[in-house]
Amino acid sequence: MRCYAICFLALALAGCSSSPATSSSSPGQGSPAEQTSVIVGGKKLAIDYSAPSVRGRQIFGPGGLVSQDPTYPVWRAGANAATRFHTDADLEIGSLQVPKGDYTLYVLVQNPESWQLIVNKEVGQWGLSYNASMDLGRVPMSMSKPSALVEKYKVTLSEAGPNAAKLQLEWEQHVASVAITLK
Q1: pTM of full prediction above 0.70
Q2: Based on the number of CB atoms within 10 Å of its own CB, is 153 exposed (0-12), middle (13-18) or buried (19 or more)?
Q3: Which residues share a beta bridge with 137?
Q4: What gap in Å lies between CA 22 and CA 20, rounded to an integer?
Q5: Closest listed residue to residue 158, CA positions, set 174, 145, 170
């Protein structure tokens, strides 16, 4: 009888520790890969990023999780690999002229209440690698507060008119956005 109880317990514990097959993250990767895209004026804009979660931690400001990155006060706008941005059209992001192509997005978060989006021409690097000499430019973002804590980081590209879009970043107690216009 004792043998049956031990076998049953071992099987039950093994079943509890297995991962669901529908998980969007890789084993050991706590920040799943995500994507957002939008078609504006027949042209595609797309962002690939990894979405970390708050999990009870302070994220921004002195002593926050982001301040521990070696690139701080520049943040990789996600986790893991650098956040990738692709545009099929020439754009104006805020006041920055962005030719069609591939870029990496970073955010200057030195002041947690006043972010600047950084569009960088270097692509394919890990997120903790940042080369300021490759910046195409920086633009201020409009800041607001969410109605509740944003647990999982979210990037959204949305249509904002016939030739316009909006980029929005949401995490913790911060929402940052910037207008995009097709040229």
Answers
A1: yes
A2: buried
A3: 119
A4: 5
A5: 170
Closest CA to 45 of 168, 174, 171: 168
Domain ranges of the chain: 31-182
Residue 161: strand pairing partners: 164
Sequence-distant contacts of 57-61: CB under 8 A, at least 24 apart? 59/171, 59/172, 60/109, 60/112, 60/172, 60/174, 61/112
pLDDT in tens, 75-129: 999 999 999 999 999 999 999 999 999 999 999 999 999 999 999 999 999 889 9
Tokens of 5: 């109880």
In the DSSP assignment, the letter for residue 66 is G
Rounded CA separation 170/46 (Å): 17
110: phi > 0 → left, psi -120 to 50 → alpha, else beta; which? alpha
For residues 146 and 37, what is the distance between their CA atoms, to the nearest angstrom?
Answer: 22
Three-class SS of the chain:
CHHHHHHHHHHHHHHHCCCCCCCCCCCCCCCCEEEEEEEECCEEEEEEEECCECCCCCCCCCCCHHHHCCCCCEECCCCCECEEEEECCCEEECCEEECCEEEEEEEECCCCCCCEEEEECCCCCECCCCCHHHEEEEEECEEECCCCCEEEEEEEEEEEECCEEEEEEEEECEEEEEEEEEC
